[in-house]
Every structure is written in structure tokens, then in C-alpha cells.
Amino acid sequence: MRRDIPEPNYDYDINILVDSYKKAILDLKQYIERTDVTNLSRAQARVVLSNVVDRLNEVTEEGYKWVEEHIPKVATEGVVASLMSLGVVDSLQEAKNIAKLNNLNKTLVETMIADTQEDLLQVTQKMSKRFKVAMRQATAESFRENYAKNINGVPTIRTDIKRRLKDDLVSSVEKGVIYADGRKVSLHDYVDAVVRTKSMDAFNEAHTNESVSREAYYAIISSHGAKDACSFHEGRIVKLIESAPGDYTTLSELQGSGQIFHIRCKHSFSSMRDPDLLPESIKSKAESQAELGSKAIATGKRNPKDTDL
What we know:
Helices cover about 60% and strands about 5% of the residues. It is mainly α. The mean pLDDT is about 90.
């Protein structure tokens, strides 16, 4: 098993994208702070809403372009990892020179791009709708306050009410994502989680597809000294397809457990043709990890502790 295969790391590229979303939210907050809510008319509210939606659409387009460039690159790196794992090439550079996406991986890339872009679109659309509701409420309250407190025909709203109206508008764009259980995640944190997960999915799926096309049906999970449930599965041997001989769990079964290859998970694997050719020390660890991993999955918990096994 080769040890010179570089582990996938997309921090630099992902940080560029996440920073663009951070900047978008900062721009919106500053714009809202400049907005005069003293006497909001429906026409003024429409202008504010239009400007906010335009900025969200702009950052979504930036995300779209990033995804279109990033996912094919990641998938190709998955192919490179397969070529090196299987000993098809002698060096990383040689692998990069010959790596191509087969038809299965071309379809994978198209699907991953569409799925990731849809995730980015949905979150900004929800934010747009939430801001529209907040804007409607702020306009109505501004109108009511002015109607009740109009002095000599001059609109006036107490400073604390103006502050609250602006805070409500800012909050509507700061929340980002609100999950069913009430958890709130900022837009940039959500984007970070989405693209990190999709990146590793694209890498691992492309690695799998290339390996299977070369009749390599097994893999060994990478080890990073994980502290969560991933630790129960590091170093395990898995099958890439269910019909492969041997009493090994499949990669898809591990993914389905939620204990590894989860959101933001950094684990990958190295493919192989014959697990019996592995050194005895690695096979021994794989066997003990298989036993431990099976116990972990049997708990039915996402992140069981050692005491649960």
C-alpha cells in the first residue's frame, strides 16, 4: 500500500469561496445600517428589498462559478489517487499527466455540480424570503409609529424603535440557515460545510469509480487520529461494490451509518485489488477495527463513546 498519496485538502480554495459569502453579509449589514427606517414607504421598501436580493444573487453566482471550476478538479484528483493507489503510475506527476474522467465520473461531476449549486441557491433564496418578511414588518411598524407619533406633520420614531427595526433586518440576513430543531447557522458556515462535504464526496466517488473500472474492488480507510466516531472505522478494509468476494462491509454501508464520511469529514481511502497482499500488521489492525466498527454501528448512535460499545 503506497504511503506517498497526498491527502485531499481544499482549505485554500474553500476559504476563498467562504470569504466571498462573509463579504456579502458584511455588505448587507452595512447597507441596512445606512437605510433610513424613520419613514419607510412601500416604494422605499421595494428598493431596499431589491438591493438585498441583488447582492444575494450576486454571491450565489460567484458560488456557481466556483463550483463549476472546483468539482471537476476535485474529481480528477480522486482519479489521481486511484491511479497511485493501484500502482498504475510511479509518481504523482505521472498520475496527474494521465488522469482523465471516465464516462461514469463525467456524469458524477455533472450531478455534483448541479447538487452543490442547488444547495447554494436554496439557502440564499430562503434568506431573500426571510428578509422580505422582515422588511414588510419593519415598513408596517414604521407606518404605525409615525401615524401615532406624528408631530406637526413631521414623522418621528423613538431611537430605540429605529434601532430594533434595523436589528430585526440585520438579524434576518445574519441567521443564514435555521434548521427544524431551531439551530441557527451563519451563511458562511453553511456554505463551508456544504462545499467541504461535496468536495470529499466528489473525490471519494471519483476514486471509487476509477478503481472499479480497473477491477479494484477493495479499499482501506485513511487514518487521522480522529476523536469522534470516525475513529472506530479508521484502517478498516471495505468493499467498493457489494458483489466483491470477502466478508467486508461496503463503503456505502459505512457512509449510511453516519459515523464516517459525514458533514465536513476529511476521511478518504486507498483502493486495492487484493487485501490479502497487505502487510500482516495492517491486516491485523483492519480486522480489529472491523470488529470495533461493527460494534459502534450496532449502537445505532451517530457518535457513540467507548463505553457504549
